[in-house]
Amino acid sequence: xxxxxxxxxxxxxxxxxxxxAWAVVTAEWTKxxxxxxxxxxxxLTFVLSVGLGHLIGLSFADGVSGRxxxxxxxxxxxxxxxxxxxxxxxFGVLLVGAEYTSGxxxxxxxxxxxxxxxxxxxxxxxxxxxxxxxxxxxxxTFLVSQAALGRYGTSLGAEGALPAVVAxxxxxxxxxxxxxxxxxxxxxxTLSLGVLLPVFFLGSQGLGNVPGLKVxxxxxxxxxxxxxxxLTGPAGDPRFGRDYGAWTGMGILxxxxxxxxxxxxxxxxxxxx
Amino acid sequence: xxxxxxxxxRPGHVTGFLGPNGAGKSTTMRMMLGLDRPTAGRVLIDGEPxxxxxxxxxxxxxxxxxxxxxxxxxxxxxxxxxxxxxxxxGARVREVLAAVGLEDVAGKRAKGFSLGMTQRLGIAAALLxxxxxxxxxxxxxxxxxxxxxxxxNLLKGLAAEGRTVFVSSHLMSETxxxxxxxxxxxxxxxxxxxxxxxxVEANSRSYVRIRTPEPERMRDVLAAxxxxxxxxxxxxxxxxxxxxxxxxxxxxxxxxxxxEVSTQRASLEEAFMRLxxxxxxxxxxxxxx
Lengths: 273, 289
What we know:
The complex is a heterodimer.
Chain A: E1 2-4, H1 18-33, H2 36-39, H3 41-63, H4 73-78, H5 81-102, H6 104-111, H7 115-149, H8 161-186, H9 189-204, H10 211-217, H11 246-270
Chain B: E1 7-8, E2 14-18, H1 25-32, E3 42-44, E4 60-63, H2 75-85, H3 91-99, H4 115-127, E5 133-137, H5 145-160, E6 164-169, H6 172-178, E7 181-186, E8 189-195, H7 196-203, E9 206-211, H8 215-224, E10 228-231, E11 237-240, H9 244-253, E12 260-265, H10 268-276
Parallel strand pairs in B: 2-6, 2-7, 4-5, 5-6
Antiparallel strand pairs in B: 7-8, 9-11, 9-12, 10-11
GO molecular function (chain A): ABC-type transporter activity
Transmembrane segments (chain A): 39-61, 73-96, 124-149, 161-183, 190-208, 244-268
Organism (chain A): Streptosporangium carneum
């Protein structure tokens, strides 16, 4: 072994085999399932979303009569996700942030020195986990909320229901990956939660609907999927409506996620561990 | 800050990496693993940069900061995720836990671990891939005497198996007990790259200590004989470049009473201090020590 000081930069290229990529994914999954505080955010996402879906369904079932014309049962299905998403956001943050808080980032990068491989493997594992949790959560929330709505409820087969369910699954998954990117940029759980949770919480409390601010706030990452999830009222609604369509909004969210991931990668690549 | 540092570490020996605090030991070791990037230059291990090894834990095992463990994860699970990254079989986790004596607490969460247990877990992680090259940064720091002894024997044992063992320390005396080869740095620069025995020979001056009730006369006698003398704080004299027998004879010839004549060797720690004296970054106020 030698440590030499020549005027040559220490960048080399190595190919990434499928085996080593899979090794990173299995390692990241092991990290997820072996820390309680990280793991329990996942069932909490499910319980909170389904529970709120049930309660919101019950409350709407009592208050709909007389305005059936404008009532959208899908709103009742997904409104609870505005709070139910918060544990999943915390999951994305903790998955990355805990590496910096505990110092395991150094062990991680010593074991997987190719930072792009490490980061890609981590983001992919987080994405797969979030997707699985999202699908189960969204479908259960939909079914429970519609059951609670009773005769006002709708079914998966009804027009527009399936796209909305798919949109909700995508939204939860993407917002979790967005949180991972932000946490990689900020290199801290507390800082990331301190930035993301207030914004997302206020967002769900209507930041995207405040008349003056709306011009800008409707483009925040937690707002852009609202159209596809039927949370913005009928198209063209002066208060809750948006300046973009359902899938344009989803496209904007994808741009947010890509920006956060690229930002995280640049920070991870440039900074010393 | 490390500047123009170049040295080679060979297998089968424990190589001590010495320098005062802040000399750049940890930075050098972090650069070896690609955690910190040198502004210029590179570190090669077996002729390759660390970052190009597909499964680096099988080539180089390192304990840089043993406390870098998630407190909520058990010892077993900490090693398990590490093993997974380099496709090391799960059975190896139990082997290394047994090797460092942690098998009884394998399922316990790391936040309850003592400093010594955390250190052992760090060493288990370094051994996980059964690597031919091992790096340890200050492995005995904060350990009790039993732990220190255990680490010493472990390091020697690993070197005896033919591995390259590179151990940093800021304690010369501790390093001299385990290492055969020494690399000494100060302020990021190489000060010595030699064997321990050669270092001791070159750096520890010997002198003769004399105590007498008549120091003034003794000084005159020695000065007349051309021997260089220094007076110590407790009133004794230190004579350089001579031997105890000659001093005894001189005293007898001149009818001087002598209470002590003894040959002294400067300790390793003093030798180390002298070597790095100009390179110490932070020193307590008031000049030399």
